[in-house]
Amino acid sequence: MKSWSLFPRRSIHAKLLAFMLIAAIIPLITLGSMAYWKSSMVVREQFSKSGEYIVTQLQIQIDNYLSQMRYMAYDINTYVSDPTLVVMREEQPKTYTGFLEQKNFERYLGAHRNLDTKGIFIVTPSGYFFGENVINGQDLMRESWWKALPAKLDEERWIGFYTPRHYVGFQDEAELRNQEKVLGLVVPVLSGYGVLKDSRILIEMKAGKLFQLFSQLEEDMSAHVTITANNGELIYQTAGTFVQQESDIVWNKPLESNNWMIQVRLPYEQMNRSAEVIQSFFIAALILSAVLALLLAYLFSRRITGKIKRLQETMRLVGTGELQTRAEVDTEDELGRLGVSFNQMVRRIQTLIAEVSRTEQLKKEAELRAVHYQINPHLLFNTLNSIQWKARLSGANEIGNMLYHLIKVLEGNLDITQELVPLEKELQTVEHFLQIQELRYGPVFQFEQTGVEACRRYLIPRMTLQPLLENIFFHAFEDGHGTIRISVSEKEGLVTLLLQDDGAGIVPERLARLLDPDLERSSKRGLGVYNVDQKFKLHFRMEHGMKISSVRGEGTTIQITWPKREEIPDEHQGNDCG
After folding, report:
1. CATH number for the domain whose boundaries are 12-269
2. Buried b or exposed e, range 303-335, using 16+ CB within 10 angstroms
3. Is the pLDDT of residue 274 over 70?
4. pTM here?
5. Local structure of 462: helix, strand or coil
6. What's the CATH code, domain 445-515+527-566?
7. Which of 276, 205, 250 minimizes the C-alpha distance to 55?
8. pLDDT per position as a tens digit, 175-189
9. What is the dihedral of CA 418, 424, 427, 428, to 10 degrees?
10. Which of 263-267, 303-307, 373-377 has the lowest mean pLDDT?
11. N or C, where is the chain less crowded by C-beta within 10 Å?
């Protein structure tokens, strides 16, 4: 009975009020604690996933930029290394012919530009440059990072992020704050002759989009971003002081293109801030419920837990990929602001995904266009047709037939309006190529096909088989003697084509280098097979493409696998190939 002394003895109202207050506070503490624990756990988990996603997108975006720059440099080097394509006799043209040569060359450099490219130039040792007339060569020579390059550059050098001072229109150092930063790459020109000898390729990409991603991490999440090279050189670091703590949440993302390392550190207090907001609101609700008694405390706690559950459900839906979901915001309190912040974060993620998708599409289109040289074939076809007509009038029927088949092969090679063609059309071009070889060597080789008829509608990248057959006649057969077999099959949505010959085979050292993506190909030798493999990867993702096996003296087998795709689906076709 002594416990009753804690309550008033004469006031029933006070006792009921005390019991109601206790009955209200205990459930509120219990339910509120559970709601706080659950919501805090969900908020931390979703916050961590969102941070991981943004950091991954930053890694992908930078890798895309670096890959584009490296591909541009590789393509330009391949072009300038061929003396039949580039003839530059003088730096500053003094004749009309020299002027046309320079303009054509600079037009070729400009064809590699895209929306994110700041400039593409080839700089000679004297400071003269080829490219758009938007920079000052002498100002470029005075750039500190340019001076730091070795006199004899023998490998690519990533410059990192910097503000270019060498563009026309740059006034003084006061403009540095308003200038857009760029990402630079310098590559030595592989051409060993002419005015391009010992020159350098300079590629600069606009870094505005990357710095927007940096700002999202630094301003929205209070994160600290650092990018370092593999030799420890600092490429980028968030401005201001940052004290590292063992409790920091750290994301490390290596870049595949050049082994740079992205590190993003997020203070644990920043991730815990949303949970602290919920905790503060819960304590305020508990104090208010003690004043307003059981009913108001119960209704208020129910309203709070309902909002948290709706926010939790919204986060769960967003976590499953439904980015169009939005948190319902009907108040301006802490939970309302949390919902507004969450909605803003989801919108930024959607925008980031759209930008990355668009960048990927532009990159793929640029890579596909760069596979073929943009030339006008009409003059070539008209000339060959005229030669064929003259040959027939002169009674040179073999020459006329060879020209006819050559024209058909060239029509398939130079028609860039359709990148994917039916296998049937590709094999027609192959037939014309084989007719040329038969006219050249005579009927000394055999050509066999298996499973082609049932697979004739399946799409294949244009002009992929003819370069492989050309390699067989030039490297595998002696005077055209041998057997070539093509077999096509389809299984589980994948088409597999086997190209076999019984020729000389390939030595293991050369076989290992044929499809190596890291090998720099400064000449056309081995470039055809590599380009065919790249066509399949560009059209059908990186896991598809070629596999080559060969035994010296017994022959070579090339296996190509890609997803089944038809130009005109045939609902009545019931037979798979094989």
Report:
1. 3.30.450.20
2. ebbebbeebbebbeebeeeeeebebebeeeebb
3. no
4. 0.44
5. coil
6. 3.30.565.10
7. 250
8. 555 578 899 999 999
9. -80
10. 373-377
11. N
